[in-house]
Specification:
The chain is an alpha/beta fold. It has helices spanning 6-16, 23-34, 37-53, 88-97, 124-132, 147-160, 185-193, and strands at 55-56, 63-64, 78-85, 102-106, 138-142, 166-169.
Length: 199
């Protein structure tokens, strides 16, 4: 005799595939929802609304409620600068900083041979098409400092080279408020390589 009803077991397994949730966390979340029917009904309603109303921007890949997201539709943003990010969460993080007034391009991941993610699985062709259409002066690669992020950045730089746009990356090195003796060797190497003259 099964300890857990089959539909509940399927729910736990599906929840466990979500980022940040393992089998135990998924089980706790599923139990919480099933013992609170009103909360479950609210979440089902919200998920239905999200599925019906939220779409992916046809230009940059951000999430929005129209074919063009609010950033791409904003006539004040500088369309001559495209900041390339791995995912929508990275775009949101850069927007929270308040220090960027250009537009974005969401790749949808980075090249990762071990997981079978190649350039064709990412939105690289769409980026090249945006640059090829004209009006773009600079492409900022805001990708992670991992090997996969750097590999993806090199591939993009090579593909964009024929169009004569400036390709730059985010500065890497010491985070604000960090102590030198607490930083790892990789971060220190990047900080030394990217040092700036002050006098």
């Amino acid at each position: 005799m099964a300890l857990v009803p089959l539909p509940f077991e399927r729910l736990i397994k599906r929840l466990a595939r979500l980022p940040g949730l393992g089998p135990r966390s998924a089980q706790r979340a599923a139990l919480h929802l099933l013992t609170r029917p009103q909360e479950l009904a609210d979440i089902l309603h919200i998920l239905s609304e999200v599925g019906e109303q939220i779409c992916v921007c046809g230009i940059c890949g951000n999430l929005g409620m129209a074919e063009r997201c609010h950033i791409c539709a904003d006539g004040v943003r500088d369309g001559g600068i495209i900041c390339v990010v791995e995912g929508v969460d990275d775009l949101w993080a850069l927007e929270r900083s308040g220090g960027y007034a250009g537009v974005y391009h969401v790749l949808g991941g980075v090249v990762n041979a071990l997981e079978g993610v190649g350039p064709d699985q990412l939105r690289m062709k769409e980026l090249v098409a945006r640059v090829e259409a004209g009006g773009v002066n600079e492409v900022i690669l805001a990708l992670g400092a991992s090997v996969d992020g750097q590999t993806t950045g090199h591939l993009l730089a090579e593909r964009l080279k024929p169009y004569g746009v400036v390709v730059s990356t985010l500065a890497k090195g010491m985070p604000v408020g960090a102590e030198v003796d607490y930083l790892d060797e990789g971060t220190l190497s990047l900080a030394l390589a990217g040092r700036k003259r002050v006098a």
